[in-house]
Amino acid sequence: MKKILTLLALISLAAPALRAQEGTAQPSDSAAVAEPAPQYWKKYATFELGFNQTSLWSWAAGGYNSATLRAGVDANLNYARDFTTWTNRLQLMYGFLWSADKDNLLQKSADLMKFESRFGYRTGPESEWKYSADLTFKSQFSNSYDTYKQDDRGHWNGTLKSGLFSPGYLTFGLGMAWDPVPWFSLNLSPVTGGFIFCGIPELRQKYGMPLIEGDYASSLFQLGAQLNMNLKTSFNDVITYETQLILFTDYLNHPFRWNRVNWDNKFGFLVGKYIKLALDTWMIYDPIVLIADKNGNNPTQRIQFKEFFSFNFTYTFGTK
Questions:
Q1: Are 112 and 93 in contact (CB under 8 A)?
Q2: Cβ contacts of residue 65 below 8 Å, gap of 6+?
Q3: CATH of domain 63-318
Q4: pLDDT digit string, tens, across residues 255-312
Q5: How far is CA 72 from CA 42, 51, 139, in A?
Q6: In sequence order, what are the beta bridge partners of 222?
Q7: Where do the domains of the chain lie?
Q8: Which of 100, 201, 211, 213 has the fewest CB atoms inside 10 Å of its own CB, making it the most exposed?
């Protein structure tokens, strides 16, 4: 009897300790491996700093010493969950050019302020089509001049070509987007409304502002259709190519005859982890923008083209 009582007493004393050990026991393998939380947001930004320089010594063919500096940021913030997507992209760029033939003068070589936002809702679980709503804003940071001339005091004066929000483009469109693969998308917005605005009075006629009671208005409203095509790809993680084509026709002014065209191309060749050779081109045709010839005469509609080749330091924050 005493042995039984002694055994029961030992069991009662050991029970709390056993329960404590059970509470701190290691989980099973199936419980230990927890699935990571889904990441609905993806964000990354690429910073680039490009520099070009030319020096001449006793160069018989002629020319001028020159230097170009350009900096740019390409930031992206994207959301995707179930049927819903929301993509945002901000592009900022600014550059200067110095040339020995225009001493003490810094000329602007690049200037871009562009924001794009698109909300999409997929039409079905396996569908490549989405209902879409687009918002785009585009302008530049500072004044641009052309045909510089130097006065008697050595000051440079030029013809004003553009300025901050002069012009500026703001558009909003509703339509459908098709994105069969991650590197290609096509968006058609049959209902696209937008404003072209110009804060500098002397430039308003050049950018198609309407004449109201003897003065040119500061903005122009447009209603039409827009097609936006984007492609971005790479080859062997060395050569990259990106293009964007935007076509717009205004229902209120020569629909399907006077079409605005914007075509941007970016070629990149990585020569090191942070070093890239880049060739960027921009082509614009805007029928309401009048451009004079080299002598400043005969303003008419013309194709605008610009290219920039640079040797860049590039760094990407976040994960592409």
A1: yes
A2: 54, 55, 56, 99, 100
A3: 2.40.160
A4: 888 789 999 999 999 998 899 999 999 999 999 887 877 766 777 888 999 888 888 9
A5: 20, 12, 15
A6: 194
A7: 63-318
A8: 213
